[in-house]
Give the backbone structure.
Amino acid sequence: MKTEYDFFAIDRDNLKKKNIFPFQLYVFNPIHKKYSLFLNGNRPLTKELDTFLSYLLEKGGKLAILKKQRRTFLTAQEYHESEIPSLKSRELHELEKERIMNIKLKEMYDEKMGKFAFQSEFELACETDNFEKIIEFARVDILTFSVTQSHTISLALHLCKTHLKTDNFLNRIVATSYLFSKTSNIQDTEALADIICGAYLSHIGYTQLPLKMLRSPLLSLSQKDRKLFEKHTILGNHLIKKSMLELSERCKKIILDHHERVDGGGFPSMKNGDSIEQLSLIVGIISHLFEYSSGKINGNKQPIRSIILSMKNKTFSPGLEFNFGEKVFNSLVTLINTDKIEVKKAA
Ligand SMILES: [Fe+2]
């Protein structure tokens, strides 16, 4: 995994008028915050590629060279390192040093554990009621996040460093929401950090509600108490605003909208369809799954596997929700091989 610490930036002029180089040229994409190989070493920078490069640089891209090719670059382009500003050394911040170490740890972890298959690991975790491996994998992965990109990413990193350690109810929701998002092809770190902070903070509004209410199954509450319970989204949003915590707008939406449903039957604003962020629906569906499983909705504990089967078969049960949008819903119901249950039942 290559990061910004593996590269140094150069200007277009540093290529001089040459069109072939003994080093590789990379371009940093400021939107995706990624470095992509643009030209391999000893390959010609053709007129077409040169035009394309100019286009990328006009759009905000940055030319970069691998640090391990620093000497090759300086010799070939006849520069002293003092002439390249990005090569002037600076002391790394402690958090940056920690991140470099975490990236190395992640590489060692991957090498030791092999490819992590979320679907089968999730099935095993549900079967054994043990999410330690899911939580550990999410933690190792999240600890490689950038420490300089945004407040929400830094907060996600901090929350995971301090809290994502033990197998508990909230960590199950956070780690599963995170890995479910990655499996659903959400790779952008900003979006993943929104999911992490959104999952951790979506129930901060509970702190303003009576404990007795929170200990009672939702369906057993009176109409009046149910309305009060539904206020936890607005209360959470209010607390975040008052705290002056710097969170992205999308993350604040997750906290406010995690109970909105695409049919308009959710709360607090009865939003519908595409007006609800996909990330809010993801935190919504994963929270609902664990809440339903723990008995927080109808008072009966139920295995996650059988809840997903009920959702897939549209078996309506009191309090069980389905309206998370086709994409998110389909990703969830295919997460578990429900055929196994049907075979077991048939046998
Ligand atoms: Fe909630």
Remarks:
- Strands lie at 7-10, 25-29, 34-39, 62-66.
- DSSP finds 16 helices and four strands in the chain.
- The pocket of fe (ii) ion is lined by residues 202-203, 232, 258-259, 287 (CB under 6 Å).
- The first helix runs from residue 47 to 58.
